[in-house]
Design brief:
It is a single chain. The protein is built from six helices and eight strands; from the N terminus they run E-E-H-H-H-E-E-E-H-E-H-E-E-H. The protein starts with a strand and ends with a helix. It has about 180 residues and is α+β, with helices and mostly antiparallel strands. The longest helix is centred in the middle third of the chain and has 17 residues. It has one domain: Aminopeptidase, CATH 3.40.630. Strands 1-2-3-4-5-6-8-7 form an eight-stranded mixed β-sheet, sandwiched between helices. Helices cover about 30% and strands about 35% of the residues.
Length: about 180
Amino acid sequence: MDITGRLVRLRPVRPDDAPRMVESLADPRVVYHLAHWALLPYSLEQAQQWVANDQPDALRWAIECLADGEYVGGTGLHNISHFNRHCGFGIWIGPPERWGRGYGTETCKLAVEYAFRHLAMEKVSLFVFSGNDRARRSYEKAGFVSEGVMRREFWRDGDLVDVETMAVFRDNPVYAERIAISGA
């Protein structure tokens, strides 16, 4: 299922996205604030395997720029718990020349709205590493608020850094009105 905004389209990941993923994830600036999965060299075989293997508790999308149709990153919902009505959110955008254009904020809003409207989630949460101020601002624009900080949680560049948990709830004004208007 495609989800289209003003700037980006979230669409299913395709096998032909794998080379672009590898290219973007080879840039240290792109992976610097991502989890451990992205810190080692990410091979074409790994990308192809990731594209081919669905997970039962996750939804994954490619982020496509509407202006030029280019693949600009990946996003998804993970650890989807229908019983507890919550899930996690993740995103990466690359190359860095694509940063600062609103793609991340719009992607975040589209994915979270999907979680509330179509999956009946009550809460969507994420982790953000200390120093990732650009992402934190984007998440805040999408309604996320801090739930707490795990001190010295993640090993990066020879030191332990803090990881903040952020969440947004279904009744957040960013989404509550849009969901009510659509009848979901």
